[in-house]
Amino acid sequence: MQQVKAVVARAKGQPVEVTTINVPDPGPGEAVVKIQACGVCHTDLHYREGGINADFPFLLGHEASGVVEAVGDDVTSVAPGDFVVLNWRAVCGQCRACERGEPQYCFATHNATQKMTLAEGDDAGTELSPALGIGAFAEKTLVAAGQCTKVDPSARPAAVGLLGCGVMAGIGAAINTGAVGRGRSVAVIGCGGVGVAAIAGSALAGASPIIAVDIDAGKLETAKALGATHTVDSSTTDPVEAIKEICAQTYAGAEGADVVIEAVGRPETWKQAFYARDLAGTVVLVGVPTPDMTVPELPLIDVFGRGGALKSSWYGDCLPSRDFPMLVDLYQQGRLDLDAFVTEEIGIDDVEAAFAKMHDGGVLRSVVIL
Ligand code: APR
Ligand code: ZN
Ligand code: ZN
């Protein structure tokens, strides 16, 4: 066991604190990782607001990269010294999805068995709930070995760590769930970190046109920088009509985009996505709705009559062992600009300030450097 500094949310709605935690030595199937960089994601803020569950205290942080320090006796997939990106879906290899050769849909993903605990204060000894089973706003964290994916060690930690969550969700929504490729038109509704990653993924896959839709002009500028060929400000322009028009300019007779990615997580934007796709097109919902939201009223004949597919994308339907090394290599070759997602590098004391900046619009990701 060792003690390290970490960012903990002790109670609902309270500012996070930097405190000392106990990190057990790795047992069977586990690894201790020395964290180098960890992005600040909306999900961390949702945890501290009590929006995910009530299992306080939370050890926040989950978009991270670092170096494996120690592994359990039986671990062979990674070794001390390996540079890894952490993932929150370590696959089991035994469930129905894994057995049928689709581990990206594993129904029984797992985390470390042992618990990290608080080391300071009246509640010292209390077990921590690591965000998404990771907890990487910490000098070191304990994870399942399967949560560590080895990548090119010469890559910049702050940039590649972001593949661990939002950036992978967006890229994967396009290339995995949406099967975007050359000769396909794409529209992305919502251009936050996830949406612009979907745009970057679509550009990487060779799609054209790539239409970015947002209500914030600043987000549309970023979208352009990451590969959008057209932008639509949906606070002033009907996005459905605009998407149809742009697609018809490239592909005569097109009645919308082949793939429309919804990266907001709201019924009205999902409905825009539904009506902005071409016949036999695909809608991909990667934005996360809240439990009170319902499917907007849609004539069933419109669902049937358009054919195609209405899909959801969890974590970009990624398989970390397949997708992380590939995307890191493309980044190293200059074909995927992960640096563009790192708006600022901050210290471990600055997480609360980074939460406050999230709604400014100018920040794609603040990344804690450890
Ligand atoms: N129409 C178009 N864009 C919108 C609308 C709307 N009605 N409402 C909000 N947006 C835009 C915002 O301006 C912002 O650019 O959607 C974007 C959302 O971005 P972020 O808040 O930065 O969220 P992000 O991290 O990209 O995640 C998007 O995916 O993982 C989920 O929970 C996450 O639901 C969220 C979504
Ligand atoms: Zn499985
Ligand atoms: Zn995240």
UniProtKB/TrEMBL annotation:
SUPFAM superfamilies: GroES-like, NAD(P)-binding Rossmann-fold domains. The keyword S-adenosyl-L-methionine does not apply. Residues 27-152 form the Alcohol dehydrogenase-like N-terminal domain. Residues 193-331 form the Alcohol dehydrogenase-like C-terminal domain. One of its GO terms (molecular function) is mycothiol-dependent formaldehyde dehydrogenase activity. InterPro entries: ADH-like_C, ADH-like_N, ADH_Zn_CS, GroES-like_sf, MycoS_dep_FDH, NAD(P)-bd_dom_sf. It is an enzyme of class 1 (oxidoreductase). Its EC number is 1.1.1.306. Its cofactor is Zn(2+). Keywords: Metal-binding, NAD, Oxidoreductase, Zinc. Belongs to the zinc-containing alcohol dehydrogenase family. This is S-(Hydroxymethyl)mycothiol dehydrogenase.
